[in-house]
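chain below, 306 aa
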Amino acid sequence: MMSKFLISIIGPTAIGKTSLSIKLAQFYKTEIISADSRQFYKEMQIGTAAPTKNELSQAKHHFIHHKSIKDDYNVGSFEKDALQLLETLFEKHNVVIMVGGSGLYIDSVTKGLDNFPEVDASIRKQLNTELKLKGLSTLQQKLKVLDEVSYNTIAIDNPHRVIRALEICIGTGQPYSSFLNKSKKDHRKFKTITIGLTAERETIYNRINERVDLMFKEGLLHETESLKEYKHLNALNTVGYKELFNYFDEEYDLDFAISEIKKNTRRFAKRQTTWFKKDDTIKWFDYQYKLEEIIDYINKKTQLEA
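prediction:
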């Protein structure tokens, strides 16, 4: 039986992953799975840089705007849904494309989620109380002391991720990061080829700034205003939205909110790069790639006839 291959397209935000994924999907006459954890939500279109209607029409996409911000959806749910879908897609395709910048969500599909020991539920309750009383920065500093590796690699601005790491550290007496990449739950029935897009830091930052400016032209301010009443939801604890909620609450002026979005997006891109650099199986290409070179690399890896 011919092997099945998942082509995973990764890289920092605004690097051009969507465009490449569509070109590859068209070349291999296949479909695309999104592993961008914020593009799942139908209410968040502009601020997540989700594929446009034109882009969506060029190749069949899955996991784009299929959930509501009110839905309880997490990486475990995504792993289960994505593997189920892949089983179906591989019945008619030898190659499927996956694209996204959410490292944990990508790894959940390609490697399986890490197994963590059970810890006392009261620890999370205490940490949530501390979050309300003392703020996220206190928990961030606590994590830096207990597990500097996680502090430097997880989405440190996401209180749910910080609390999850801390509860493992406190409940086990060992760093959260020490449980990563140990035993995985499942053996994958497909092989993964990971293609990374990269550029000089200044180029990435310039592309981020241009993308943020474009989001505002497309109506990010109006989109965020329509979501104000849901700002407490985890889905909206997202760069681009949380800064504008501060603007609507009159904590920021608009120019400062925009500068904060750009700054926080740059920080996010840096964290993405740190996460991906841990994987030495990634084949990196410059963002101004020649498509033929990437296809040639994939074909050699898969030994498939295109």
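Residues 254-276 form the longest helix (23 residues). Residues 5-113+186-218+274-302 form a domain with the Rossmann fold fold (CATH 3.40.50.300).
thats it, cya
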